[in-house]
Structure formats: structure tokens, C-alpha cells
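User: When convenient, might I ask for sequence and C-alpha cells for a protein?

AI:
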Amino acid sequence: GLAEGAKNQFSTFSNFITTISQKKEGIGNRNSPTQLVIPTIKNGRDLPPLCLDVRQKQRMSIDTLPQELKAPFPPEPSLPIRTKTVKDFQDDVEKSKASGDWKAVHYFYSTTFDSFLEINAAFKKDTNSPFNTIEDSGIDAKFVNVVYDALLNTPQDVQKSVLKGIINGLLQEWTGPRTKDDLRAYCILLQNPQFSNTSTYVIYAHLLRQIAALTEADHHFLVHWSKKISQRRFKQVVDRLLQFISLRLFPAKPEEFPPMVKCTWWIPSATKVLALFNAANSLISPPIISYTDFYNSTLDHIDLMEEYHNWQCYGNSHRFSFCQYPFIISIAAKKVIIQRDSEQQMISIARQSLVDKVSRRQKPDMNMLFLNVKVRRTHLVSDSLDELARKRADLKKKLKVTFVGEAGLDMGGLTKEWFLLLIRQIFHPDYGMFTYHKDSQCHWFSSFKCDNYSEFRLVGALMGLAVYNSITLDIRFPPCCYKKLLSPPIVPCDHNTLVGICGVTLDDLFQIMPELAHGLNELLSYEGNVEEDFYSTFQVFQEEFGVIKSYNLKPNGDKIPVTNQNRKEYVQLYVDFLLNKSIYKQFAAFYYGFHSVCASYALLLLRPEEVEILVCGSPELDMSALQRSTQYEGYQKTDLTIRYFWDVVLGFSLDLQKKLLHFATGSDRVPVGGMADLNFKISKSETSTNWLPVAHTCFNQLCLPPYKNKKELKQKLIIGISNAEGFGLE
């Protein structure tokens, strides 16, 4: 009903569109977006950047603006007196439903939304209070929610009156900066559920355009006010914005919208407003909604490499690209960008090698196009270290592994095996490079000092090669590791610049050493006399090869007692020492190893959590999803052997399911796209049923003989997957 009613109304909107376009001329279009940078405001916390720039970002403070650019805050105009309460409104709605007479409700809606002043008069908690701080928007959220919840159940003429009122508000003549009442009105209008309907998108687009064009200071207020919206309403606003972008990109009925050439500013405006909500979400711990709720899967179907190249060429200058707002790009889409960027680098390096060979009049060799790693199983780490150090110039070529003395040909399977065995050996506690923490079930860097940190560089290079060659690794690093790995995301030109150093908190320590973090938290909340009862100083003691060594957390720290007044500083310095300073050389080598392979602007698009997923895949196994996506060769999914197989596999323990996945694919981790991305295939093996199953890990293929019963299949399958190391040809 709303769609038809509002659509008929659009014939009268032509003047509105023309007028508002003239008023907003120069604000910007898709080719000239306004970069959203949050200023430093007194009494306001720093916000995450809304827009990512390849170049150095600068934060602007209102206090540092030239005098001629400073504008005084305009006085708040006096508001009309409106006394209707939530209960009064609800009573009016109930009476209208019972009698069929909606006059009172119609009058309320048409009056309330007729202007920004009326919106404030209705929904401001106290019309006599300014509410001009970031901490309190002054909006009566309960009243707003009740009014919007009732709106979609009212007659069409009531709903039309709201849209007309919003148009009136958007058409107001503005001079100077917006008042806080204006910002309150924008915050309220964004929550209007009518904007879920495509027939209202013209109005919605102009609302978004005005909000996107606000000053940085106004955005700062909107971000802090938005974080106070309830989780459900917050998610609804985000979903509406994502839907708006998706339907503008791929409209179900193109005739519903103006031609794309006339509204190129729609998508940039919506994306910028979405960036405000992403910033608000990042301010809360835990966040209001998951960062994945900002993903727009529709973008998986556009030309991502064009977006990426535009961003590389133009940065955040005067050309819009979704890569400026990476929070909206799904991890699957980012993986595509990284893979294609990697492939282009591989091709470029290989081509250069070929040209160099020909220019020297030497015979080209196919092996020169690959990073060929030849290792002995008995000397796996040392051989790998030597090979990667010797062939550092070839790291960006396609990886090919050969195990000395084995006939296996690397079509991908030997590479997976090499990664798996190398990681297993390097992370073994006896090797001493990493410490395994049982409480958190993760590894962390050993702080022991050594003369050579090349093996840490090897581990970093291995992680980089895994991402570069689309291999998932079974590495259990805490989230803090990936945050450090992106600090900074691009290797600095100045080698004296510190790398791998990031802001760390007690929460980061909880994810590695929960018992120690709990003790430090107890210190912070201790109500007694810290200095007398704990008798601690700004000093840390660590055991290294049986010797206790002490380190000062600050100059003369051994002489500075920890007190109730300075305990927060002590805890922060302690955490920083453990996660940054004590392992700096180890992590710096690891950082440079990773970036020696993965140096790419594409890393700027990634969150630390996304790097972890790219490196490790997902540990969550869904064998039912694997069953649904499996392909068959020589079998039908209804064949008895296949039914036996899935009955057995779905009944396996998690450990056996991981062994099966490792046996068939070379890894027990699930790739970014889920089980369907494995392209798992079961083929019929025309051999004796006395034979064990055989796997071609290069192709994620399992060759299964037609076993006669479930018991025999289970027995042979368990033997096969439990003895799955090494490659050979009969």
C-alpha cells in the first residue's frame, strides 16, 4: 500500500528534486566525495578513521583552524510547545484503530514531521535544555520508537504526510553551521522505517546527502549519539543503508529510480553515512553489532579490481571507490582482491625473469617461473630456511615444493604438506621459538634473546606465502598478533621506524595469559593499600635459561613503588613490555618476513580479524555443508557406498573429521568461502575393496572403492586418514 501511495506522490516531487539539487550544487557527487575525518574536540574521544587513505592521514582540530574559518555555534531557536506523551500517543492510536477515525493521529504525524523544529519539539526530552554534548543527544528514544513502530500500520494518507513533512524539512534555507537541534532531527529521521521501501529512496537519498555533507564536528556528534541507539534499531539503520546501496547498484526495477548518471552521488552519500555508524560501532566494547554486519555481499559481484585500481591511483582524492571504506567489503571479496593482486605480481615477476634470461641469450627454463623449494624431510626447517634465504628474489613467484627422494609431483598437495609439517615442527615447544599457553590455547613469541632471528623471519615468510598462495595454516596466534602485523600495514621506507608496535590493553593480555591478566586486574580493583600490601616496583622479572633477569618498566623503575595512584600506569607499562618491548626483535623479524611476500596495498583493506581468517581459515567444521556441496564422479549421491560414507563421517569425532579433511585436502582448516569453496569431489575407485581410500590433495579429491558394508568402509577410512603423511607413486 505504501509503495503504491508514495509512488503516486512522486509525480509532485519533481520540483523538490530540482530545488534541492540546486541548493546542494557543489556539495559533491560520486566523483568528488567529502572525506570524513573526525576532528579532535574537547571532551570527545578519538574516533576510528571513517575513510582509509594510502597517504598519511591528518586529523584536523577546530582549535587549529584559521580564525576566518571558525564559525560561532548558532543560537538554538525557540521550540514550539508540545505536551503529548508516549501514553497520550498510544491512547490516540488505540482510539483510532477502534473508531476508524485517524484525524488525531494524522494531525500528530503531519505536525511533528513538518520541520526540524517540530521534530525536536516532539522528541526532545526537555525543550528548555540545550543537550549540546556528545554524551547525551537529548532524544526521547522510547517515544521515537513508539511513533515509528506505529507508523507503518497507519493509513496511507498518514504515511504520505510524514514524507511530505520530511521534504519540507530538507527544503529549509540554511545559513551557517547546523544547530544541535538539526543534528537531532537527522538522527531521528535516519531511523524512519519508511526508508526500507524503494519508493521513498529519492527522499532518502537527499537526506543522506545532507548528512554526508555536514562538517567534521557535526559528524563527531552524530557518531557519539548513534552509539546510544539500541542494538535492534542500530542494526535496522545499517541494513537499510546496505539495502539502499545494493538496490542502487542492481535495481530490481530500474524504472523506479532516476538514471544513474543523474544520481551518481547516491552511493557515495550512503556509504559515508554508513561510515558514521561503523565508527560508532567501533567505539563500543564489545561492539553494538559484529563488524561482519557491515559487509555488503552485493559488492562481490562488481568489478572489484577496477575499484582497487581506482583507489590505488587516486587514493581519497576526488574519485569515489568502495576501497576507501573497506568495512563494507566482505572478507570473500577482499580475498579475491588479494589473490588477483598476488597473481598479477606473480605474472610480473615471472615475466621479468623470462625477459632477463632472453636478454642474456640464455635458454628459458620453466622452473624459472616458480619459487622452487627442495627440502629433505629429515632437515625440514634448515633446508627451508636456506632455500627461502637463497631465493629471496623469487618469493613472489608461484610456490612449488619437492621432497628429496619422493616421486610426488607438486600440483598443490606437496605445498600443503610442506606448510603443515614445517609449522608443526617450528611450533613444537622443544624448538623454543614460541611458547604455548594452555589456558588460552595459543602460541606467543618467546622473549629469550638470541644472536639470529632469521627463523622468526622464516615463520613470517611462511605466513605470507600461505596468503599469497591461498593456503590455510593451522597456526594459533592470538588476535593481538594480527593487530601488530598490520602496524603499519605498509612497510615504512625508513628502516629506523619501529614496526609491529601497536596499542595493547589488558584485554589483549587476557587472550594470551589469562591468569596473569586476571592478577593485574585484581591489582587495579584492590581496595587496600597497594604499596604496603604488594610491595612492588616498576620492574619485571623473567626467567631466561634458568637465570632470573630484571627489567625496568621506566627509568629507575626499581626505585619507584607501585601505589594506588600509579597502578594504572604500572599495568599499562607491564602489558606493553610483555606484548611489545620484550619481543620486539623477534616480532620485527616476523613482520619483515611476512611483508617480504605480502607487501601490497590490499593489506590496507584488512582488519586484524580478517588477516587471521585469510591465514588460518576457519576452524569450524560443518560436515553437513560439505555433504551438500560435494561433487561425485562415478557415484551418485544416492548410491549405497556414498550413503555409508556420510553416515560414518557425520558420526566421526571432531578429531577424525579434521583428519579426513586433512587427508583429502591437505589442510584441516576451512577456507574463507566455507566448505563450498573446497570443491570437494568423491570419485569411484575401480580397485579391490581390500584397498584403502586414496586422496589427490592437489584437487581435493577422495577416491573411494565400492566397499560392501558400512563397517568395512569405516575401518578402511579410519586407517587411511590416520596414516596420511608422505607422497608416493606406485
Summary: Residues 1-72 have pLDDT under 50 and may be disordered. The chain is about 45% helix and 5% strand. Strands lie at 370-375, 398-403, 434-437, 442-445, 539-544, 547-552, 631-633, 681-684, 694-696, 701-704. The longest helix spans residues 331-359.
